[in-house]
Amino acid sequence: MIPLRDTVKSKTIPFVNWILIGSCGLVFLYEAGLGDRLSDFIEKYAIVPSSVWSVISDRRWSFRPLYPLVTAVFVHGGWLHLMGNMLFLYIFGDNVEDRLGHFGYAVFFLLAGIGAGLVQVYANPYSAVPLIGASGAIAGVLGAYFLLYPKAKILTLIPLFVFFPVVEISAFFFLGFWFLLQFAEGWFAGGADAAGGGVAWWAHAGGFVVGAALLPVFLVVRRVTK
């Protein structure tokens, strides 16, 4: 299922969401110009689960393996990877920014990305395959949207062989199905896909849960600081 738009109108200008989308786009353009240096760039800024796990399990502080939990969010592996992630962020991010405020949304996005990365590390702690992409952080946004706007309608393209019907689906069903799919893929793959350079399913499922868990905290902070 491919979301095209939702029915919830933004009440504020979602400039943080635009900045996040623009940042991912600019980083990708930079990647495109690196040529043979791209692999070094990814190795430096991607999450390497085994490196992060060694810091956690040994209980020793080392900044180098940990900062990619943030930087990896802005690095993507190809046009389809980038465009798919940015489509979801564009559709769902503006409304979450409405509810959390600009600064709160920025912090929420980064914490969701860190949380999603840690879930994937825990699921496959000895993998040396670099992990990149904003999908874990975006999954956190989806988890928040799921709780905030369950009755919203999502205009959805459903590829069915040679037919491509467009239907309106409730956000509760669309995002609930999306989460169950990520969870099922992670469960049956057991982290193997990410280990082989494929999809980090547990980062998606984990990010969704992290976002849903963080939302009440951010709503309280938003209410108190208004």
> H/E series, N to C?
EHHHHHHHHEEHHH
Number of strands: 3
CATH class: Mainly Alpha
* Number of discrete helical segments: 11
What distance separates the N and C termini?
A: 37 Å
Query: Within the largest sheet, what's the order of strands?
Result: 1-2-3
Q: Strand count, sense and closure of the main sheet?
A: 3 strands, antiparallel
Class derived from helix and strand content: mainly alpha
Global shape: globular
For this structure, what is the CATH homologous superfamily?
Answer: Rhomboid-like
Assign the CATH topology. Rhomboid-like fold
What is the name of the CATH architecture?
Up-down Bundle
Percent of residues in β-strands: 5-15%
Q: State the share of residues found in helices, binned by percent.
A: 55-70%
Rounded to an integer, what's the Rg over CA atoms?
Answer: 17 Å
